[in-house]
Amino acid sequence: MLRAFIPQATRIGTRSFHASRMNCIAVGELLPNVKVQIDSPANEVSSRDFFKRNKRAVLIGVPGAFTPGCSKTHVPSYLTAYSELKQKGVELVACVSVNDAFVMKAWGESLGVEDKIKMLADPRAEFVKSLDLAFDATGVLGSVRSKRFALLIEDAVVKKLYVEPDNTGISCTLAQTVLKDL
Ligand code: BEZ
Question: Which UniProt keywords apply (predicted)?
Answer without folding.
Answer: Antioxidant, Oxidoreductase, Peroxidase, Redox-active center
